[in-house]
Amino acid sequence: MKKSILKVISVILALTMIISTSFVFIYAENSSAQADLNNEEYSFLTNKSINPDEISNAVVIPGVFQSKVRLYNDDGSLALNAKGEEYEAPFFLDDTDSIVKLALKKCLGPLLLTLFTQIDWGGKLAQNVADVLGETLGGKIKCDLNGDFINNVKADYYDGSVADLRAEGRTDDIRFIYDQIPLQEYSNVVGEDHLYYYSYESLGNINKIVDKLYELILKAAENSPTGKVNIIPISQGGTLANDLLDRYPQVGEVVDKIIYIVPALDGTVLLGEIYEKGFIDDDEALYRDIFPQLIDGNDDTSWTGSLINIVLRILPNKVVNDILDKAVDTLIEDYIGNSTCLWALLPQANYEGAANKYLSDADHAYLRRQTDAFHTAQVNSFANIQRQIDDYGAKVFNIVDYNSVLYPICDSWQSMNADGIIQLSSTSMGATSVAVDVPLPDDYVPAKGEKYVDKYNLVDAGTGLLPDSTFYFHNQNHEKTAQNDIILKLAVSLLTDNDFVSIESYPDVYPQFNEGRFSRGIQNNIAAAKQIDKSKLSSADAKELEEALEGAQSVFNNTVCDIDEFRKADARLDRILKKINGVSTEPTASDKISDSMNTGIAAFLKFLSGFLFNILGGKGFSDILRIF
After folding, report:
1. pLDDT value of position 305
2. pTM for this structure?
3. Could you tell me which residues come within 8 angstroms of residue 209 by beta carbon, excluding any fewer than 6 positions away?
């Protein structure tokens, strides 16, 4: 990246690929298996005994890319890449060597010419980079003008419960399901025969996907001890639920509860603004904020994002923006733009502009009718939810994350509260907020009283559709939702306790406003600590382990999160475990030198990136020379 032209092209391709894949609304970093709770341990959460025969079967509608999806040949055999390996979803990328060869063939010449002349002659570089990205990311997932995959792309479908999968010996599928949505606690309480998982193609045809979802819901209801089901739409599952409730409102006849978890009910502005307006063109974001935040995060020793900010300036500003804009347009127009599932993730406010931009020609007339129909379902989503409550007696709950800034790839990334992926107004069914860490105005009057405003004065839940059955997690990121054990326990409690009807049911156990936390580490440490034979330890270490374990278990069991207390208990248990296992908590001399060097490089590159931005703004190096 620093020494050769080949490395420069890799940077440019990497930048555009990061941007392209980021706006495809990727949800949920997989979570490891959660700690098991038996009935006795579980019941303390709401102090209710549980009779599985009184609990409706649950149908999970997972988020984007949380299904096993495979690429097949026309004869039904699995498609393999040039190395004989199965293609991996979601994009079914070719092997790295093939991608590099394609990139070099298409882009090396135009890149060298552009670097030498500082002009993208005829837009050749922008178009070729866009073509490489489009073919790489979208070539195998293209949909036709009906909204169906051109290639043979299918999800592994589970037409029975998890118990049915276990009876068939499909342990890999069961492991996959629990990795995606860790609901072992629910299965432990009521049995795996109560749990269904709807698997689907996240980039496919939403109408056909929802048709099949409706069939699974009816089957799960038929097998349910109550004759009804609880459905759990998660993230993109919320968009499927919009279509379900609009086209199949009669599903309410078999629905007991709907428990939304971070649902994209009004899409995500990340995708909506990319479709309507293109990639963000704000120089401050492009040359200062985006790449350090996407790549480096809060790591003081990471410097790749700052280096990219600097490297970008070897090309004129216009060329950089042309490459990004052409990449987005090509990806949408030629590759992913016929996916009705993706169109369903556009917010109402962006739909018309984007549809007029990409779906206004005669060839897209049928597809436009499909997307228009879903847009109507989205506009009517609140009314359709209320209808389920009023006409069918469904109990509807919502669990949302907030106060995590959106990825900086769209114009509005700083101007609204969000969970990192979806704006709060979409997930919360209309709660009022300003932006991340920006309080409501001093003269703001809460819609239904102060009780619905969080202690940080960031959110008024009273303007949401369901203020009495919506739960909020402060500083919780969308992608880490499955790693918050409290959210999972809340969902399981809502599923299994029929007396749990509102935020007032158990306010001391599940308050309306709670703190986000990531509990994978402390869960693993608790499990490890319980396996240690304390008789083999020194008295001091045995005592410290016992006290640290007790403290960690206490904060883990507490479903009202004190984040500082949680972190201290986690760190204490982690320290004693490392001591017992002979793992030094002190970095080696080599580590110190390496960290010191990386920190120094990161600080220097961050300073240089900021200095260049202050001096050059959004200009490339050659843009400055042209001035003189």
Report:
1. 87
2. 0.91
3. 200, 201, 240, 341
